[in-house]
Amino acid sequence: MGLLGKTLSGPWLKLFYTSAENQINHVEGIQVVRLVLHNLKVAAESPEAFLTAEIDLFGNPLVVDSTMSVLRDGIARDTSMYSMMMESCLKAVIDVIERQYSKYFTLDIDQKLKQETKSARCHNIDAEEVMGMFSAAKKRAPNATLCFLSCRMRAKKNRTVAFIDSLDDDAKEKVLQKAIPFGRKQRDKKKLRHKELKEEII
User: Fold this and answer.
1) How many other C-beta atoms are found inside a 10 Å radius of the C-beta of residue 157?
2) How large is the angle between the packed helices 82-100 and 26-45, nearest 10 degrees?
């Protein structure tokens, strides 16, 4: 696990779990995963190579720090079970990647797709943050409606309140006067939809 952390998990997190400004293009990320998958299959055929490898599974120079040295030295003293265990781990990782990325690997990647996915994030941290916000808001106000919680979270994530506060009084009033009736219409639509759902469930 330690060797996989140094050669796969660590580099994966470093490459994909970055800020929006430094993120890799979504489509280019698919090509990187293809490369990693190929390297995993090669590594599964000779797990012993991890003990002397100078590059990680992404093809980047491998930093052999004190932790890596201890891992390699410990395994080198008794390799009887190492190869079998590492091969099993690598095959399990390969199975997961092939299953999770099967649709990505069949995509016809062209310039249009690259442009359309330019702003797509390569990780799900934003989704996890939203779920955390929802959980905290629901705990604080257990009787609040989903509509209210949804609006509150959107306003916070999209910085809507900060934007409105930045406007001058006239512009702010104009925005609010438009937003109030629009919000009422949206609320009425959602009430009707909730009623229909309730009847369908019953």
Assistant:
1) 12
2) 150
**pTM for the full predicted model:** 0.61
Q: Residue length, the chain?
A: 202
The letter for the amino acid at 167 is: L
Torsion of CA 58, 63, 67, 73, to 10 degrees: 90
Render pLDDT for 59-70 as a digit per residue (tens, 0 to 9).
999 888 888 888
Note every long-range contact of 54-57, with CB atoms under 8 Å and residues 24 or more positions apart, other chains counting. Answer: 56/6, 56/7, 56/8, 56/10, 56/11, 57/7, 57/8, 57/11
Burial class (CB in 10 A: 0-12, 13-18, 19+), 32: middle
C-alpha dist (Å) from residue 139 to 111, 135, 144? 45, 6, 10
| 3-state SS assignment for residue 60 | coil
CA dist 183 and 188 (Å) reads 9
